[in-house]
Amino acid sequence: MTTETVLEALHTVKDPEIPTISLVDMGIITGVEVRSDHHVKVTMTPTFVGCPAIDVMRRDAEAAVRGLGIEHVEVEVNYDQPWNTNRLTEQGRAALLKHGLAPPEPYDEAVELQLEVLNNTACPYCGSHNTTLKSPFGPTLCRSLHYCHNCLQAFEGFKPV
Amino acid sequence: MNKDAVKNLILRMADDELILAHRHSEWTGMGPILEEDIAFSSIAQDKLGHAQALYQILHDDFGMPAPDNEAFGRSESDFVCSQFVELPNGEYDFSLVRHYLFDAAEYLRYGMLSTSSYEPLAKLSRKVYGELKYHLFHAQTWIVQLGAEGTEESKARMQSALNEAWPYALGMFESTEDDAALSADGVFPGEAALQHAWMEMVSDTVAKAGLSLPQNAEAVLGGRKGYHTEHLKPLLEEMTEVYRIDPAAEW
């Protein structure tokens, strides 16, 4: 058993709220430790502390690894490596876009993130930056609401954190 | 490290989060506009998550009951939330002003705790800080919009809500006998230091909103010692109704 095989299995597990993106591409898998052919430990961290989907994702991750024939699967959720949107992979950003969500732009973590960037989020439908933030809160904790003045459509963004 | 002082600090923070989360959730389906309905509901969900994570630390590291039992199994006098968070929502203006004054304090508190010597709290705080940025951003935007950028009526209502909320807001920083130990151990600089930073931040936004800070107000204290307003008991009765019927219920 290798770490790569376990990650491949975790790639098949999708976020229940955004079914186009895998847990790996979301960046919420923070560690995979193959202790033996029978014992694997996976570490995860939630996107938002109050994310109600974390328990489902934890169960799904455990089932996926167990599906490889591993008897002893431990899944730990902790904040040792806190999630932020820079942890999204390129594939992850593409998956969000495919789901109609504007992906968050990567940012420099050495500089405190300014939420004013939300005022010109690129529209996921036409790519225009001529957009307005309608609300920093949307249908799930990780989404914001925007309006595009170019294609005249409301859209949702994945919040940069 | 004085572990009792750390435990008490976390419990005060968790109780504040839990009770205000419940108040915010009362706006679900009732918000003045859809976006605000969603915002207050989302903030409630975030805060409930923060409360749960804090109760989890108390459970894991201090042997206290599991988060659900801690949240739903205690009586009124066991709660150490500030009286500010238990006040009824009132009109939207009061809820918004409370949301602002509370989240400005939270944002600064978790910022300070990000470098705490008590590592479990420092790790959680670094995460929560990024989320609180959104709470503060939301509140600040509306305070200015309904204040300096609003109508005469909206501005008057914001001022009156601020006057009403202020003495209770000051009560958030009620000093406790834990403060000296927390500060000496590098866990948390203390309520007085937090209040000082908060006052600077709030004065700035209140001025931007064209409002004035209430003068000579006296802090309403007691919440941190288990003394509460008449509003906490009915809130707890509603919040714990399912748990009291069946503590093991899945819902």
Task: Kindly describe this structure.
The complex is a heterodimer of chains A (161) and B (251). Chain A is 22% helix and 29% strand. With 161 residues, chain A is of the alpha/beta class. Chain A folds into 2 domains: 3-77, Fe-S cluster assembly (FSCA) (GMP Synthetase, Chain A, domain 3, 2-Layer Sandwich), CATH 3.30.300; 89-158, no CATH class. In chain A, helix 3 (54-66) links the parallel strand 4 (39-44) and strand 5. The longest helix of chain A has 13 residues, at 54-66. The termini of chain A are far apart. In chain A, 40% of the residues are buried. Chain B is mainly alpha-helical and 251 residues long. Chain B has a single domain (3-245), classed as Ferritin. In chain B, helix 1 (3-25) runs antiparallel to helix 2 (34-62), helix 2 packs antiparallel against helix 6 (119-146) and helix 5 (92-113) crosses helix 9. The A-B interface holds A 45, 48-52, 78-80, 82-84, 113, 115, 134-139, 141, 145, 159, 161 and B 35, 38-39, 41-43, 45-50, 52-53, 123-124, 126-128, 130-131, 133-134, 137-138.
Give short descriptive properties of this protein.
heterodimer; A: 161 residues; alpha/beta; 4-stranded mixed beta sheet; 3-stranded mixed beta sheet; 4 helices; 22% helix; B: 251 residues; Ferritin; 11 helices
